[in-house]
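hey so i finally got around to running the thing on that chain from the lab meeting. sorry it took forever, my laptop kept dying and i had to restart like 3 times. anyway pasting the input first so we r on the same page abt which one it is
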Amino acid sequence: MGETAEFVARAAVSQFNSGSFEVRRVPYMNDPEYLKEKIKEAAQYPSVIAYTLVLEDLKKKLIELAEEYKIPTVDILGPMIEALKKVSPTPPRMEPGLLRKLDEEYFRKVEALEFAVKYDDGKDPRGMLHADIVLIGVSRTSKTPVSMYLAHNRLKVANLPLVPEVAPPEELFQLPAWRVIGLTISPDLLYDIRQARLKSLGLTAGADYAKLDRILKELNYADEIMKRIGCPVVDVTNRALEETAGKILELYYKGERNER
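ok and heres what got predicted. didnt touch it at all, straight out
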């Protein structure tokens, strides 16, 4: 959080309308010897040390050294933490770098969500090579919603519909089998889902897409592709989205461990 102290310092310096101040940031301060080195360096000039240290031993060391070298110090974070302690039911964790970790997790999640949208429904097969997980299966096996759910776990997921008339892209067969997850479903349930889908679109229920013989043909084709790849398969029949995603995560992390 060195950038926090830097921001406050620059805001304060701006009140003096002077270009004679120089603000230097020293991030990731966690070593007492390095701390001593930097304070000795600061002592060579008229200096003020603004800090956001949360490790108590390191804070005490900084204050002792600053007093020894007669350098004024400003604790940027301490007073706010002390105030929050008075109203919070839980104590502070007092771990350095937590804000940075939260920011990193947030941006990884955004990146994963953008990836899921970009490589949804087989839009660009090249994305498969950069995916953590590739979901395959026939239409209406929840590939897109599961992809989005997994993206919230910061995993980059691409998905591909399997259609008998369209050969899968070669990229699919270049991936380790454990990174590909097949989704399957019972023919009867898929029939009901597709019938409902056609009705919601105002289309006739007699369309080939929702006929049972067509559904069986697609499922058999998808099963052949999954066996060819040798990938794990998850049956989504009567599974909640969270349950399906949980099973996929279990298979993914198991495959990742075995790959190491």
